[in-house]
Amino acid sequence: MPVEVSILGFFAPTLLPLLVVCVACFIVIDLVLARFGVYRFAWHPGLLRVSLFAVLFCGAALLIHR
């Protein structure tokens, strides 16, 4: 995978578009988990949200940059 991606003439790191995609996926997953009340069972809901995003982003980055 290339290290930089050209977006409208602007060279951005490869992880920037990946970050945008992961944020969109995280918002959808977060809304679904909140709708079903999963956060009621968590010890610290904010920590669960941060860890969910970290798992999504790091997992996607590892898949891309193999």
From TrEMBL:
It comes from the Bacteria. The keyword Transmembrane helix applies. Keywords: Cell membrane, Membrane, Transmembrane, Transmembrane helix. InterPro entries: DUF1656 (IPR012451). Pfam families: DUF1656. The chain crosses the membrane at residues 6-34, 46-64. This is DUF1656 domain-containing protein. The lineage of its organism: Bacteria, Pseudomonadati, Pseudomonadota, Betaproteobacteria, Burkholderiales.
